[in-house]
Amino acid sequence: MKKFTIMAILVSVIMIGFTTCKRDTSITCNLGKTDNALSNMTILFKAAKTGDGTLSTLTYKVGSTEKTISSPALPWSVNADASAGDAISITATGTTSDGSLTISYDGKNTTAEIHGSDYCSHSNN
User: Fold this and answer.
1) What is the per-residue pLDDT across 17-62, written as a single tens digit (0 to 9) for each?
2) Among 21, 54, 82, 123, which one is least packed by beta carbons within 10 Å?
3) How does pLDDT run across 79-88, given as a tens digit for each residue?
C-alpha cells in the first residue's frame, strides 16, 4: 500500500509537470531577397503575416534610394519605380511564435518580369 501511494504521488507530480509545460516559443526571422531590374519598371514591394507574426523593421531599396519602416502594420505594400540595372532589395526582421511572415517584390513591364520572396514560419502545435 505504501508503494502504491508513493507511486501515485510520483505519477501526479509528473502529470502536473506535463500539463503546465509551455510551448510558447517564438523565433526570430531574418528575411531578405535581392535582384536587378531588367529594364525600366514599377516594383511592388509587399509584406504579410499569418497568425501572430510581427515585423520590427522592413527595408526596401531601388537603386540608391533606401527606405526603412519600423514596425510596419501588416499587410503592407508600396510601389517604386526602377530603372534598367537598378539593384532591388527587400529585407525584414520579425518574430512569430505561431504564424508566418512573408516579404516579396514583383516588377513587370511589356518585355520583362521579376519576382522574389522570402518566408519564415513557426508553429507551437
Assistant:
1) 554 455 569 999 999 999 999 999 999 999 999 999 999 999 999 9
2) 21
3) 999 999 999 9
Handedness of CA 74, 48, 40, 36 (dihedral sign): positive
Q: Could you tell me the three cell numbers for 73?
A: 502594420
Residue with cell 502529470: 15
User: What radius of gyration, in Å, describes the C-alpha atoms of the chain?
Assistant: 23
CATH class of 26-122: mainly beta
Q: CA-CA distance, 73 to 95, in Å (whole number)?
A: 14
CB atoms closer than 10 angstroms to residue 15: 10
SS3 112: coil
